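DM from R.C. (forwarded with permission)

"hey, sorry to bug you on a friday — could you get me a structure for this? deadline for the figure draft is monday and I only need the backbone to look sensible"
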Amino acid sequence: MRDTRESRLLLVLLIAIAFALITVDIRGGEDSPVDGARQAAATVFGPIEDGVSAAVNPVGNAVSAIRDSGERHDRLAALEKENAALKAKLGSDDRNSSRLKQLNKMLSVAAEGQYGIKGAEVIAIGAAQGFSWTITVDIGSNDGIQRDMTVLNGDGLVGRVTTVGPDTSTVLLANDPDFTVGTRMESTDELGFASGQGDQPLRVELLNGKAEVKKGDRLVTFGSQADKPFVPGVPVGVVSKVDPSGGGLTRTLYVTPYVGFTKLDVVGIVVEAPKKDPRDTVLPAKPKPTPTPTVTVTVTPSAGAPLGGQTEQEQ
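My reply, with the result:
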């Protein structure tokens, strides 16, 4: 349409008529004279709107789904985090329970031997100071720890302190090849020296080459002068093998230690020695032997057999 004076006048007239119809429709409400036309328009354009809506709604639903998915993901992540926290707490509780048992057992050993100890946690293992079998514990000189103190746990002898820092200490384990401790046999009091052999049993040389020893005999620490590096009476281990060759200057034994050196967690450092040698009182109770069942066989004679085992000819 060409932009003329007539066209501009027609446009103004149409706008005026549109405003007039809108005013009449609003004032008429449901009785509006244009309601029929509106319904007719809805009949014509409704299916088109439905089609457009059907085409658009999946996109909107997808966006909503993504948004809801994000919310569900956040919720799932929160639940997983809570679950992980609960598992961590459970694990911590289990570990604390295990440590409590270890502490109770160690305190029982300390009470039996009258050892004054300070508890420590193993925080590192390895050859930090050039030793093959060592552990590092979380107490040091600030806690009153000194070099050459005995280290034990609820099972027995762990080792001795070799290096002391302000807040940590290094312990040489009893199974290290450079480790040696004086021992005493239970009951017989035979003396000897035990040396570490890594993951093998301790090797013990008894001073008496003719000593009577058998598998299952037990040993404790003999103790050192001034109780350093070893206090007396700490359980060492059980004889697992006796060298058959006897009659020499010494007798060789192999001893399974009470302590598991690969699973140390809580240990005690003896800061005060007992006033008297506890002897064998710290050793664990011996296991009771399992009774051997006795089988009694009773022979019941058959009904036709003669009494006394006699045959008919003998009668």
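R.C.: lifesaver. The chain has two helices and twelve strands.
me: no worries. Residues 41-70, 309-315 have pLDDT under 50 and may be disordered.
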